Predict the 3D structure of the following.
Amino acid sequence: MHAYEIDDARASRAQNDPGSRPVQAGRYLLAHLDGLSDAQYLVSTPGLRIAWMNAEGERTLRAGRGLSRGGDRLLLHDGDRQGDFQDFARRAIQTSAAWVLSGFEGAPPMSIRGVAVRPSGCRQMLMLTVRFVSDEDQIELPDLANVFRLTPAEGRVLDHLTNGRRAEALAERLNISIETARTHIRRIYTKMNVASREEVICLANRFRAV
């Protein structure tokens, strides 16, 4: 994949060059990414300048769901966290990383995964995958109860936590009291060595089946 031949003008010129195999391979790969339901952004660091985005990435920006575009830069709607976003990108370019942000102005929690890529002939860039966690979504995960040695009841609670549900919602779904739900959540936090629902989602996403 050649990152700088992703934009429309250059990709069109490259398509007419039958000898440009890296470009053609890149186009096939990006065609696959374009069909994914998660928003994808290929960005340079520092600056988070967008070199390419898939169709869902464009829809996410148009809908104003947690992200926006300032010129060619990818921005968080929560401007107070933009510095944190830059710090995350600097970490992710060194080693793959995940970050979960609490919902901003009523939006659902947002999971961002960053993976460093080095396109042929180009400097290293960062592929960001953005996913919004809501009650309707289901994160495909292995049995994390075994991974973290949770009880069956804690495992059921974890399933709901990783899909964005808060204590009240999961207590209703599981037909347990809110006090019991909170007890399970505290024990899950201890066993997973986390301190918040967002950290649970972030940690669980590392095991997500892609």
Q: What stands out?
A: The longest strand covers residues 110-117. The domain at 37-132 is CATH 3.30.450.20 (Beta-Lactamase).
